[in-house]
Amino acid sequence: MADVWVLLLILAFFALCVAFVRGCESIIGPDDAEELAPPAEADADREPVRAAQ
Amino acid sequence: MTAAGWAQLIALIVVIGATAPLLGRYMANVYEGGPSRLDRVFGPVERLIYRACRIDPEREQRWNVYALSVLAFSVVGIVLLYLIQRIQSGLPFNPTDMANVAPALSLNTAVSFVTNTNWQSYAGESTLSHLTQMTGLTVQQFVSAAAGMAVMVALIRGLSRAGQRTLGNFWVDLVRTTIRILVPIAFVFAVVLIATGVIQNTHGFTTVHTVAGTTQKIPGGPNGSMESIKMIGTNGGDFFNVNSAHPFSNPTKFSDFLELYAILIIPFALAFTFGRMVKDKRQGYAVFSVMFVIWLTASLFTIFLEVGGNPKLDARGVGVTQTVTASSPGGNAEGKEVRTGPSGCGLWAASTTGTSNGSVNCMHDSFTPAGGMVPLVHMKLGEVSPGGVGVGLNGLLILAILSVFIAGLMVGRTPEYLGKKIQAAEVKLVALYILVMPAIVLIFIAVSTFVRSVSDVSLLNPGSHGFTELVYAFTSAANNNGSAFAGITANTAYMNTALTVTMLVGRFFLIIPTLALAGTLVRKRRVPESAGTFPTHTPLFVVLVIGVVLIVAALTFLPVLSLGPLVEQLSL
Questions:
Q1: Which residues of chain B neighbour A9 with C-beta distances below 8 Å?
Q2: Is B221 in a helix, a strand, or coil?
Q3: Contact flag A20-B50 (C-beta cutoff 8 Å)
Q4: ipTM of the complex, rounded to two decimals
Q5: Between the CA of residue B272 and those of B20, B43, B290, B326, what are the distances in Å?
Q6: Contact between B417 and B404 (Cβ < 8 Å)
């Protein structure tokens, strides 16, 4: 029974973390189209993490 | 301070100064995905993992998906490690017949290792099987460190990219950090440490007859492999209860030096990684300077306070010598080995608390009150000097953003950091980050003083020293450090639960605003540098950041320190 309570406690904490993520999303707000660079500029600036060849 | 003490400190600085830039460059290349001669070795392994886990390495994530990936990975890690401990008696590699671990202690240990804290409410050699130590704890020592570094690289991408939405892929960053950085370095260190005498076997206890005519049980186990990543990943959890004060974990003066170097090298090198990734090495030098100045100051304070010893012993003339002799390193000798001495011990204490390592080679509870306060304060600074792998640099970059905000307030100008405007959303997230740790520490300290089991069972000492033990425990847990003041019995229902919650909040409630900050910064376009831009690579900025670090900590923690180590020192 103790194991079940422990697992519920872990899940409850991580549910709280997900709610915290949502809270931070509201602080940031939606993407501002003016802020985001046009695709060409964004691509030039990007340094993607590539898988090793 | 003895000549040997100075030699150790200077040698450490020289070796770190020579190797940190090289490692920093290598790590930057790993995170930028640049071609490497090692691709032939690591590439197939990575592709195998990606295929097995169905990871698309080309697919990048926004900050919230990155954060949810970190959370998902961590919750699975906690559940698995918890279950391993709960059923360890029925699993193989249990030559010492260890019983299943109790639920509260299993949860505390699982959370401790997944959060990279490595707080140990148990004695490893008398609680856990070899399998639990190998597949449970040691695996988490690798991946929890890698997760911290992944979050760090996401924040750096937030600063280095402009006008974008994504921060990379958490799973790719996790795999690359583990495969290309932690595993190779830890393997080399493990071999060298084993060569110095750190044990690595699958034995249980060996009964021996001592020269005093009694019998003693000598523990065995796969310690070398754990000892290595314990240091490299700034984890700190040891196979043995007394950590690196145990001769099987730290057998010689050379192993002591190597382990000290292993604690510090990646955190310092990450400053150079940062400089390369933001395409301005001067920014990396500035960050390195802040880390180095605080670390060196804390080290020298701790060393000299311990070398100075206890003034009460000299004044009373009780026949205790604290001066250097042929057979004694002098100073405050309680809780220290002769081979380590107060200088070697002080240097280790400052290094382990400036990072989120938490290993010890002597007992911090036996320090002089002022000497013990320095490691405590060092943790309260947020462990940014040089900090735990990944999370330390995160903390310092966030304090740098706070510093430019304060500088901006002084001159009435919108602050910028690396060309990104720091506005309301960023400052709110920085404030969240800075408030979480003190809040959880101070609330739990206050509540714990009213809990009967804490005063009756957990605290070894009454009065201000006992209070310091409590303050140290929650500060260590909230900063994911893991070291203890040694005078506290933490394996009680209350302490296990309270410290579990503290470690969880201290890890994930800092990671989430960090990633959110990266998410808002990555969208911003870069503002061209102008005559009014406050430069962030100058000595003035270094001094400003150090000042902000000290002032934030002092304003938050001076009252609680005055009730613990300060009043104890004044009562000497």
A1: 107
A2: coil
A3: no
A4: 0.90
A5: 7, 25, 13, 42
A6: yes
